[in-house]
Structure formats: structure tokens, C-alpha cells
């Protein structure tokens, strides 16, 4: 069972019933039903009808006394992890380039999730989102399966936002900012790759140029959808392939892919708090970015 105890503080002048509050917290309807019929939600240690108004400083106890939607268990890994943020329920890790986010087979033990399995010792990690093996940067991980559906809803509502930095080769001119809205599907000629195609899945990327010279640009990227290889495919399709991309850039690879997940924004579950987590590129990546741009400005 997973238990969460919250001291409620209303946002501005909001007046919410228990039902309204559970909806605001993005708790799935089936779980709301189970909390009600099992009387597993308490206000100041007592069960109350769902139309009860929740008051400032009320103590809300949620007992998730039912099976989660899915279980994820991994073999223990052997590498240390770079923890950027941690609390009782979640973990944000700075993944290195070249490491998979999760194993493809249950017998594998060399992914980030395997390493987090070791780090958590008596608990298990639950994947909220992933980044490509070649990409480095921030990954949000839950310590309980009961938060995964909540974060999935944050992803759908764009409350959970992911921001990246990339260095791209300018094979064609790039506007200072824009939105790329092009569907992406499986490349029938190469199972490793994706491509822009009319009958693909909706994929939307926002970008802004931070610095550029006549050959390269440093761009900030925001994912509005989360398709496999989305940033790499969108940028390459427009003539701005990411430097050192082995799949979508025809130039020889010279180091790690210059794509870094540097910022995560999400709402702390069961609260009104907006959490913003940022990380800086590694020294090696920073030096490589500067080398391509011949820039000395501080990277945001």
C-alpha cells in the first residue's frame, strides 16, 4: 500500500470539494471510486462524503490500498547515478550519453533504470518518460507506481514540460524561433529510424535559436508531444541535423550527440507547487558546444 498525507492549502480563493480536489490532482477516476467505496481517503482522520468542502490546513490522508496499473522491476545495475533532485516520491537523474533509459529485455542490467534500482535499495523505480540512448540529461523517475498515471496526465496536459539544448548543423537557413508540426512514423527502410510522413503520429516541437554562426546554431527545444526521436527527426527534416547524430546526420560522428535535456517543469503531485529542475551540460559537452559556436556566453 502507498500512503500519502497532505496538509491542504488552497490555491488563491479556490473552494473545492473532495471530488474536485482529486480531479485537480489528476487521480484516475477508477482510483477515485476505490478511494470512496473503500473509505481510503480521510479528512483529519475521518472519512467524509465526496461533496465535503476541503478547508485550509485540513490533513488529507490517501491510502492507495489497491493494485497499481503496472509493476516495473529491474535487475540491479552497477553504475553510479547523478541525482539532481530527490524527495520521498520522485527522483530526477542526469543521464549520461550512451546509456539506455530502460532495458529492452528483463535480463539486461546496463540501463539507467537498472542503476536506479540499485540506488533505491529497498524500493523500485518507475519510469515516467524516457530519453534516447544517445541523448544526455534529465529523466524523471517515480519511486511508486501510483504516481505514474498522474504524471502521464501532466504530460498530456502539457503541465510536465521538457526542454532541451541542441547544436545543429545549418544545412539550410533557420528562423530565430518557430513551431515544427509534422507527423512522425516508422521508417520502413530502417527499423532503427523514424521519419516525417503524412499518416504518422502527431508531433509538435517548439524551438528558439540562442546563438548561431554561419555553420551551426545552439537551439532551445520544447517537446509538446513525445514521439520516438522526435527532436532529431524534426530538426533533420528541416535541414538542421543535430551534431553527432549517427542516424539523422550524414556527417561523420565526432563525439557524443549534442542534445541535452536540461530542464524539467512539472507539478508536485498532490500540491499546487510547480517544480522546475535544471541541469548544466557536462564540462566536455559544454566545451564541445563552445568549440562549434566559438562562443563564451553562459549557457542557459
From TrEMBL:
GO terms under biological process: enzyme-directed rRNA pseudouridine synthesis
Gene3D superfamilies membership: Pseudouridine synthase (3.30.2350.10)
The keyword Isomerase is assigned to this record: yes
UniProt keyword Isomerase present: yes
EC number: 5.4.99.-
The entry's keywords: Isomerase
Top-level taxon of the source organism: Bacteria
Root EC class: isomerase
Active site: 132
GO molecular function, one term: RNA binding
Signal peptide (from-to): none
Domain Pseudouridine synthase RsuA/RluA-like: 89-236
One Pfam family named in its UniProt record: PseudoU_synth_2
Catalytic reaction equation(s): a uridine in RNA = a pseudouridine in RNA
InterPro entries in the record: PsdUridine_synth_cat_dom_sf, PsdUridine_synth_RluA-like_CS, PsdUridine_synth_RluC/D, PsdUridine_synth_RsuA/RluA, RluA_PseudoU_synthase
Purpose of the protein: Responsible for synthesis of pseudouridine from uracil.
NCBIfam families the record matches: rluA_subfam (TIGR00005)
Family: Belongs to the pseudouridine synthase RluA family.
Name assigned to this protein: Pseudouridine synthase
Phylogenetic placement of the source organism: Bacteria, Bacillati, Bacillota, Bacilli, Lactobacillales
